């Protein structure tokens, strides 16, 4: 039986300034900082997770904010644009909000939908689109009330060095269906209600370069640990060379690079972000895996202090 992902689990990107990263994603976009931990492979660097009130799969964008790191170049082998979905009737609110906070945005259309496109403080390409699908967020912060809050991912635009191979993997490995083609983009859809629509640019693009303002990888959902093992077998069966399963504390992960150069991950929905801290205090403390806990003082001493704060433009 061919497995089919329900959509995006998370997207992970690079940044350089941790406080500016928090100010943009919590302050400007109103997302919740649901987990403050470290890069397990480079413990001197934060790993920050932003999402809805629980950090539900399909809502989570994560960052490695490496101070003074180089700026990347968006291109082939990357997620080109990360799409967020907002409640119907709120695009005007978001256009006004971004303008108020000095974020330049412009409207564009694709597949009969209107998108509000902008970049974050380090050049990462983002867009907002209204859709009825997806559970409403219960989180409000600063100038973003819950009834206008980002629900989670709408999907993404993929930039490929071989768009035909990327499309083949989306359909024949990940189980998405091709639902349209228009103005240089192909659209693929899963059966989930968040992170379920992927647009692929129909141009073989020059390789991008990793660094601040670029996406490192896109992760797809596996519903549980048993299915996750089957996913690894399915990827291996297509000769895509998956990694062994890796325990990331809040989900298990397996990685592979598809033929268009984009790093894909498949991540489990469980156990989630409340496994090591209470839901009401998510993101308030630096959480470390047990093997780093004896080194907490040194690790925290190397991290720049950050805080979730209401932006000056939202203060009454």
From TrEMBL:
This is Glyoxalase family protein. Residues 7-131, 152-269 form the VOC domain. Signal peptide: none annotated.
């Amino acid at each position: 039986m061919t497995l089919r992902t329900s959509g995006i689990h998370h997207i992970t990107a690079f940044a350089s300034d941790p406080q500016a990263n928090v100010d943009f994603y919590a302050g400007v976009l109103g997302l919740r900082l649901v987990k403050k931990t470290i890069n397990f492979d480079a413990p001197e660097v934060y790993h920050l997770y932003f999402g809805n009130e629980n950090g539900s799969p399909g809502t989570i964008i994560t960052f490695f904010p490496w101070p003074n790191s180089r700026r990347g170049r968006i291109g082939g082998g990357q997620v080109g644009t990360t799409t967020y979905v907002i409640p119907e009737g709120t695009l005007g609110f978001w256009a006004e909000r971004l303008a108020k906070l000095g974020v330049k945005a412009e409207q564009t259309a694709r597949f009969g939908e209107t998108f509000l496109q902008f970049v974050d403080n380090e050049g990462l390409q983002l867009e907002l689109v209204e859709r009825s699908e997806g559970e409403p967020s219960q989180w409000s912060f600063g100038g973003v009330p819950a009834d206008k809050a980002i629900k989670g991912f709408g999907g993404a635009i993929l930039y490929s060095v071989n768009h035909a191979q990327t499309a083949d993997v989306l359909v024949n490995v990940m189980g998405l269906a091709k639902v349209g083609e228009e103005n240089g983009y192909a659209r693929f859809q899963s059966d989930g209600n968040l992170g379920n629509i992927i647009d692929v640019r129909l141009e073989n693009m020059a390789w991008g370069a990793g660094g601040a303002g670029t996406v490192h990888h896109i992760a797809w959902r596996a519903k549980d640990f048993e299915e996750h093992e089957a996913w690894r077998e399915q990827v291996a069966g297509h000769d895509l060379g998956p990694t062994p399963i890796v325990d990331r504390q809040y989900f298990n992960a397996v990685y592979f690079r598809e033929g268009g150069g984009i790093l894909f991950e498949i991540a489990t929905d469980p156990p989630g972000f409340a496994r090591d801290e209470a839901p009401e205090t998510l993101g308030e403390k630096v959480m470390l895996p047990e093997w780093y806990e004896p080194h907490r003082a040194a690790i925290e001493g190397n991290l720049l202090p950050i805080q979730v704060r209401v932006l000056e433009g939202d203060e009454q």
